[in-house]
């Protein structure tokens, strides 16, 4: 079964262990359906939900509630053995090698445009038959546990291991946006999912364990702490003013202008008034929309070029000995929760870096790590001025 969205053809299949994989094709002969990527996975992988050799049922990761904060913490001990900085000839995100009968790669096709698949080492996973109910460990009322019944997906931006999101074409960037929107819509509709977070980690300084250009999508069975805090602030602002907080923030930045670094027909990028990180920028639509699926075709097309321009400038932000330093960063889409507060939410992308100068990283100080009392090493205006210089 396939479906076509805008210029993209989506073809789902399953990997050998039962995980889902989706090809997002924007090139011929695949986008028209004249040809189809390889759909079978020849690897001799056991079903991921099959009992082990001793007949014990599979168990998924667990959530534990911190009694001091009320936050849910995922316990995913199996991730200790996940792939870590493999050699180039063992890259699990690369396309299959031509004429190879078997390789332990995640993508069966010998080439692809964009691919999304379930993570082999997920922090969150719904196990069939497991009930998503809170239980008490050792009958202790303070020790609440529940299955980490969410989903983790990997998004491969390119089949070229040497590429990056910044180097893809606007056409391919549009395909990636379609993949983000497609998966957000599907995961939001999944039972038990409260929030979908699409993000990218780039650079060894961030702790990336696979250098192939890729991002991730987490479907969480709870509201993440930052999301809950943002939603609370938005609701309080609505109650006090009758207005949308995200709209008022955007209009204030546009009126002031000093921190606005990039504008297009449908998008605005600015350094936030209270930026935490040495480099931080928010990218938001001009129109009030709750999430990526709500974007129009024109907004998606404009985002493809605007995002790439923003990434181009960020990769010029730091220069060492007249050589630009590719910026290590984390970027993530703050989207409306799946089941609450959607009318109070406004879509935004947050992108930030831990690099504060060439060869120097921002390490969280004790007061930052301990009690989340942030201290900035620069000012938002300095960050904005540098990004404007690179226009």
Automatic annotation (TrEMBL):
Which segments does the entry list as coiled coil? none
Query: Annotated pathway, please?
Result: Carbohydrate metabolism; galactose metabolism
Keyword hit for Transferase: yes
Q: Name one Pfam family in it.
A: GalP_UDP_transf
Which family does the entry's similarity section mention? Belongs to the galactose-1-phosphate uridylyltransferase type 1 family.
Q: Which cofactor does it need?
A: Zn(2+)
PROSITE patterns of this UniProt entry? GAL_P_UDP_TRANSF_I (PS00117)
Q: Does the keyword Mitochondrion apply?
A: no
User: What molecular function does GO assign, one term?
Assistant: nucleotidyltransferase activity
Q: What protein name does the entry list?
A: Galactose-1-phosphate uridylyltransferase
What are the alphabetically sorted keywords of the record? Carbohydrate metabolism, Galactose metabolism, Metal-binding, Nucleotidyltransferase, Transferase, Zinc
This enzyme's EC code(s): 2.7.7.12
In this chain the Galactose-1-phosphate uridyl transferase C-terminal domain maps to 239-345
Galactose-1-phosphate uridyl transferase N-terminal domain residues are: 61-222
Concerning Gene3D superfamilies, the annotation shows: HIT-like
Basic and acidic residues: bias regions: 37-55
Q: Which reaction does it catalyse?
A: alpha-D-galactose 1-phosphate + UDP-alpha-D-glucose = alpha-D-glucose 1-phosphate + UDP-alpha-D-galactose
Residues annotated as region Disordered? 33-65
Q: Native species of this protein?
A: Cellulomonas fulva
């Amino acid at each position: 079964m396939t479906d076509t969205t805008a210029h993209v053809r989506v073809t789902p299949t399953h990997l050998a262990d039962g995980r889902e994989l989706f090809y997002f094709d924007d090139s011929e002969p695949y986008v028209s359906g004249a040809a189809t990527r390889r759909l079978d996975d020849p690897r001799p992988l056991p079903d991921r939900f099959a009992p082990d050799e001793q007949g014990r049922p599979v168990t998924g990761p667990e959530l534990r509630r911190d009694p001091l904060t009320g936050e849910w913490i995922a316990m995913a001990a199996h991730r200790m053995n996940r792939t870590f900085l493999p050699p180039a000839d063992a890259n699990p995100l690369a396309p299959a090698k031509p004429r190879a009968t078997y390789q332990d790669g995640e993508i069966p096709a010998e080439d692809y445009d964009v691919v999304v698949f379930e993570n082999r080492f997920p922090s969150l996973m719904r196990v069939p038959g497991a009930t998503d109910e809170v239980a008490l460990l050792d009958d202790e009322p303070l020790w609440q546990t529940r299955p980490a019944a969410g989903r983790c997906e990997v998004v491969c931006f390119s089949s070229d291991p040497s590429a990056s999101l910044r180097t893809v074409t606007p056409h391919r960037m549009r395909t990636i946006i379609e993949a983000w929107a497609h998966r957000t819509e599907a995961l939001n509709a999944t039972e038990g999912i409260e929030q979908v977070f699409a993000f990218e980690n780039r650079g060894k300084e961030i702790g990336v364990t696979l250098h192939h250009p890729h991002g991730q999508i987490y479907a969480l069975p709870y509201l993440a702490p930052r999301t809950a805090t943002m939603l609370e602030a938005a609701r309080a602002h609505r109650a006090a003013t009758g207005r949308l907080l995200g709209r008022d923030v955007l209009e204030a930045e546009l009126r002031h202008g000093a921190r606005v670094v990039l504008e297009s027909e449908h998008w605005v990028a600015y350094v936030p008034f209270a930026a935490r990180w040495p480099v931080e920028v928010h990218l938001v639509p001009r129109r009030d929309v709750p999430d990526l699926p709500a974007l129009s075709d024109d907004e998606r097309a404009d985002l493809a070029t605007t995002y790439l321009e923003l990434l181009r400038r960020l990769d010029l932000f730091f220069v060492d000995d007249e050589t630009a330093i590719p910026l290590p960063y984390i970027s993530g889409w703050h989207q409306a929760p799946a089941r609450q507060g959607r009318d109070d939410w406004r879509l935004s992308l947050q992108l930030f870096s831990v690099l504060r100068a060439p060869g120097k990283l921002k390490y969280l100080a004790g007061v930052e790590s301990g009690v989340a009392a942030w201290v900035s090493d620069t000012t938002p205006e300095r960050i904005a001025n540098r990004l404007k210089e690179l226009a």
